[in-house]
Amino acid sequence: MARAFQGALAENRPQEACALFAPRVLQDEECAAVLEKLKPATIEETEVWGDGAIVRAGADTMFLAEFNQGWLITAAGCVRRGEIPYDCAAGGP
């Protein structure tokens, strides 16, 4: 799922990338505006715990959750800020 998202970003397939977000993530923003903030990167690390996952790709982090229709992105373009929550371009952990 995260690889599909990174591939869609790299190959400029916005509709495919947008379809991989959980519905609540993009309620306040248009997907095209969110995608402009993100850069494709190689996935370096994935951690899964139950129905949640964190994926690190380049300098960004993505959070995923498993829904009835499969894994979807709940936050993308996230940057760690030490002890305080991640700052994300879309959604949040």
Descriptive notes:
The chain is α+β, with helices and mostly antiparallel strands and 93 residues long. The protein has one domain (2-91): Nuclear Transport Factor 2, Chain: A (Roll). The protein has helices at 2-10, 14-18, 31-36, and strands spanning 43-49, 52-57, 60-67, 70-81, 84-87, 90-91. Strands 1, 2, 3, 4, 5 and 6 form a six-stranded antiparallel sheet that branches. Strand 3 (60-67) and strand 4 form a beta hairpin. The protein starts with a helix and ends with a strand. The mean pLDDT is 88.
Write the layout of secondary structure elements.
Blueprint: H1 2-10, H2 14-18, H3 31-36, E1 43-49, E2 52-57, E3 60-67, E4 70-81, E5 84-87, E6 90-91
Antiparallel strand pairs: 1-2, 2-3, 3-4, 4-5, 4-6
Strand content: 35-45%
CATH architecture identity: Roll
Helix content: 10-25%
| CATH fold-level name | Nuclear Transport Factor 2, Chain: A
Low-confidence stretches: none
The number of helices is 3
Question: Between the first and last Cα atoms, what is the distance in angstroms?
Answer: 17 Å
Broad CATH class: Alpha Beta
Count of discrete domains: 1
Shape: globular
Largest sheet: 6 strands, antiparallel
Structural class assignment: alpha+beta
Could you tell me the number of beta strands?
6
Computed over alpha carbons, the radius of gyration is 12 Å
Mean pLDDT: 88
Order of helices and strands: HHHEEEEEE
